Structure formats: C-alpha cells, structure tokens
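Lab notebook, design round three. We kept the backbone fixed and only want residue identities now. Task for the bench partner: fill in a sequence for the structure below.
Input structure tokens:
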C-alpha cells in the first residue's frame, strides 16, 4: 500500500472525525439521562461501524448472490430478528394497513436495498457508503417538494453541496473503470430512503417503530422473493459470501435497527440521525482494511462535500 494512499485516507478521516465527535458529545450532554454521557456516543459508534460494514458485506456477497438474491437473504433475516417487536404490537396492524405497508416497504427497503447491492457488484464499497449519507438531504428535499416544509438558506446550501459531491463522485474512476453507475444507484437509493422517511412520518403515525420495521422488511422480502428465485445463482455460493449475507441480514439489518430505536428513544430521531456522519467513514475504512480498496481523490472530495451538506441539514442548537 503506497504511503500517499494511506495519507489520503487518514486525512479524510481526520478531517471529518471532529464533526462527528463534537456532535455526539453535544447530544450526550443534552440528553440528560444517567449513563448517556458514555452510552450514547458508544452506541452511535457501534451503529456507524455496523452500517458502514454493510457496504463491505454487500461488496463481497453481491458478486455471487446477485442483487436480488442477496437482498432477499438480507430482508428475510432482518425481519426474523425484528419479529418479536412486531409480535408484541401485532393487534395494531389492521388488514387495510398492510396495503399501505407494502407500498412503503417497496420504497423504503426493497428498492434501495437492491440499488445498493447492484452498485456493490460494480464499484468499491466506499461508493455506496458515501452516497448513503445523502439520505438526510433527500429527506429534506422531498419534504419541501411534496409537503411544502420550509427549507432555510443554510439547508439549501447543504443540498447543493451534496449534489455537487455526487457529481464529483460519479466522475471518478477505479482501476480505469468509471464508477458513475454505482454512484447514481447509491444516490437513487438515498432518494428512495428520503421518500420512505417522509411516508413513514405521515402514514404510520402512532405505531411502534420496531414493529413497523419488522412489517416493512417482511413485506419487502415477499416483494423481492419472485425476482430472487428467478435470478438465484446456479453455481454454489462460497461460504464467505454466505457469511457476509448472514451478517448483513442479522447484524446490519436486524440488530442495527434495535440499537437505532434505542437511540431514538433516548435522544430523539434528529439526534440519532447523526450516525449518518459515521457510516461513510467506517464504510471506507472497512473496505480498505478488508479488501484493500483505496480512497481516491474524487471519493475524498465527494465525501467531504456530502458530509458537509449533511452537517448543514442537521439541527444545531434547535435552529434551522
């Protein structure tokens, strides 16, 4: 590994880490709960590391499962882990509600998971991890366009910075091959996440978040199942890819949601979403450590622009 490549990676991580550390410390102090001064930052770090690792697991397993097969394994195992949360609240889910859940599941789970897995077949894991951070910005943009929510000048600048970051990311190459298809797929997945967040906020009010996650993952698994069967690999899937697929479903989808909802309950949704800062950092770090994937100049610049845009779209001190 060239020293210059290592320096670029460390410069990128060191440049963005202070933002993360400062924000987590603020949230820990403001939560006012006993033990949260250390527990909240720890859980944010763990969650960022887990969700960052999901792009590494997709990169390894998608090569052998294909996008639909891998996503089916992920959704099924994630739903299985979260099913106890749904079971406790099952009486709150009427027959009519399931039709709404199916639509939201397609937007918030099935389609973005497939887009990220498709991109992971074609480009380094860091590409998906960086574009995933745009979810915060797309959530604000969708709320503006479809629901008329006010957007401040600061947040508008953040949106522009994020989109410029994606353009920079899409212009890059790895090993002489352009990564723009994977970058656009990741941005599209983040857009679907943004739509899904807005739909859940307005269409599933009053339902336990963990139960909603279990229900939407189950619906998504049923939606993807025919495509997974039709495209299931004919050759045996290597044990390492199976391990990555299981970890993706059980840990990165199931257990990660449990941690996330604990954080939401303790410090609130906007504060818990600061984990967005950590996902690209861990995504790039794990891919470098496990696969030797480099951090290119375009990835570093794009990551800085997108994370800067995310920072501008966060609530700081209660102001917008």
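Proposed sequence:
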């Amino acid at each position: 590994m060239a020293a210059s490549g290592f320096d670029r990676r460390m410069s990128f991580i060191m440049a963005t880490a202070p933002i993360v550390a400062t924000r987590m410390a603020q949230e820990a102090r403001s939560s006012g709960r006993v033990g949260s001064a250390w527990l909240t930052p720890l859980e944010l770090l763990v969650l960022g590391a887990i969700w960052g690792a999901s792009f590494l697991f997709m990169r390894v397993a998608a090569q052998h499962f294909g996008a639909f097969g891998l996503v089916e394994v992920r959704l099924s195992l994630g739903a299985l882990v979260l099913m106890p949360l749904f079971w406790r609240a099952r009486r709150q889910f009427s027959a009519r509600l399931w039709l709404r859940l199916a639509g939201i599941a397609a937007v918030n789970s099935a389609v973005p998971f497939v887009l990220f897995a498709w991109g992971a077949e074609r480009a380094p894991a860091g590409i998906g991890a960086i574009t995933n951070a745009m979810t915060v910005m797309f959530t604000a943009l969708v709320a503006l366009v479809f629901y008329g929510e006010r957007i401040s000048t600061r947040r508008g600048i953040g949106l522009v910075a994020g989109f410029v970051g994606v353009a920079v990311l899409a212009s890059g190459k790895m090993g002489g091959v352009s990564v723009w298809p994977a970058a656009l797929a990741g941005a599209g997945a983040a857009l679907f996440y943004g739509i899904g967040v807005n739909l859940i906020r307005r269409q599933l009010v009053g339902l336990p978040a963990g139960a909603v996650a279990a229900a939407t993952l189950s619906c998504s698994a049923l939606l993807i199942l025919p495509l997974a069967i039709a495209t299931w690999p004919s050759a045996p899937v290597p044990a390492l890819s199976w391990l990555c697929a299981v970890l993706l479903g059980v840990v990165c989808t199931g257990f990660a949601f449990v941690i996330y909802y604990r954080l939401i309950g303790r410090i609130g949704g906007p504060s818990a979403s600061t984990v967005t800062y950590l996902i690209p950092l861990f995504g790039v770090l794990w891919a470098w450590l496990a696969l030797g994937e480099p951090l290119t100049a375009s990835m570093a610049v794009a990551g800085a622009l997108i994370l800067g845009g995310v920072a501008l779209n966060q609530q700081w001190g209660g102001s917008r």
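Keep this in mind before ordering anything: The first helix runs from residue 3 to 31.
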